[in-house]
């Protein structure tokens, strides 16, 4: 079963009401790809390629200009239990500065209808138990990343969508993330991770969907796409040398 299906997805921003028509930006352009369960899929492309806009359309946060994005055959808004189906980390700023990690998670557990006991479980899953008592304002970027991930995991979702999850992580954190995502995939979960750092993504993913200027460049198993070279070499060859 193809859990995430993106079909001819397109997003044009603008033009501004009084601006010239040329100010319209085509962020995503006739994009079609699948994300399958049991694998970590890297959603790759340079800055401004349209990765975040695509993830936001999959999550129903941005309305497509045309095309569809579905999860288990349904648009996100039509899923019966959205937070129990999809866990997403899109930005890193959703914390009240004075709230502790544990209280932040308790609040989101309550909002999602999950038992309080789930808070300790997700703290443990992401390795954040030791700083659960600390206020969000004092957390490092890597600690915030883990807390975001813990929040996304509250509903034990089958699908994980993570936008640049290795941003701000130290090498130890990146190694941990790699192991964590791998374990999720082994359990049959569907994992889509965006990144513009190809060397890092290469270590972390089984499949890739590469986009540029909002359009699909290629998708497939990383071994097939790279054909024994590095992902960076394959990417440069596929995009005519423009990274
Ligand atoms: N709300 C918006 N209004 C206008 N343009 C936007 C908006 N959101 C994104 N864009 C534009 O759409 C294009 C794609 O942006 P997007 O953030 O999806 O790229 P990205 O691949 O996630 O980039 P990065 O790796 O830098 O995060 C860019 O040209 C961006 O400026």
Automatic annotation (TrEMBL):
GO molecular function, one term: ATP hydrolysis activity
UniProt keyword Transport, yes or no: yes
PROSITE patterns the UniProt entry points to: ABC_TRANSPORTER_2
Keyword terms of this UniProt record: ATP-binding, Nucleotide-binding, Transport
Gene3D superfamilies: P-loop containing nucleotide triphosphate hydrolases
Ranges of residues in domain ABC transporter: 4-238
InterPro entries: AAA+_ATPase, ABC_transporter-like_ATP-bd, P-loop_NTPase
PANTHER family documented for this protein: ABC TRANSPORTER, ATP-BINDING PROTEIN
Family: Belongs to the ABC transporter superfamily.
The protein, known as: ABC-2 type transport system ATP-binding protein
């Amino acid at each position: 079963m193809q859990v995430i299906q993106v079909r001819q997805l397109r997003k044009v921003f603008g033009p501004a009401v009084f601006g010239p028509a040329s100010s319209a930006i085509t962020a995503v352009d006739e994009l079609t790809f699948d994300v399958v369960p049991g694998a970590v899929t890297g959603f790759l492309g340079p800055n401004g390629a349209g990765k975040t806009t695509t993830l936001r359309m999959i999550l129903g946060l941005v309305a497509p200009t045309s095309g569809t994005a579905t999860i288990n055959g349904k648009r996100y808004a039509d899923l019966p239990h959205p937070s129990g189906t999809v866990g997403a980390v899109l930005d890193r700023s959703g914390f009240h500065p004075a709230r502790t990690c544990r209280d932040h998670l308790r609040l989101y557990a309550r909002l999602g209808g999950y038992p309080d006991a789930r808070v300790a479980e997700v703290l443990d899953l992401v390795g954040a138990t030791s700083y659960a008592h600390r206020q969000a304002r004092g957390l490092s970027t890597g600690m915030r990343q883990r807390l975001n991930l813990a929040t996304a995991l509250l509903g034990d979702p089958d699908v994980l969508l993570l936008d640049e999850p290795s941003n701000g992580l130290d090498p130890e954190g990146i190694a941990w993330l790699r192991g964590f995502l791998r374990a999720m995939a082994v359990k049959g979960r569907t994992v889509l991770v965006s990144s513009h750092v190809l060397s890092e993504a290469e270590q972390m993913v089984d499949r890739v969907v590469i986009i540029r200027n909002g359009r699909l460049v290629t998708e497939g198993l990383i071994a097939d796409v790279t054909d024994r070279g590095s992902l960076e070499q394959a990417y440069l060859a596929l995009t005519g040398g423009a990274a």
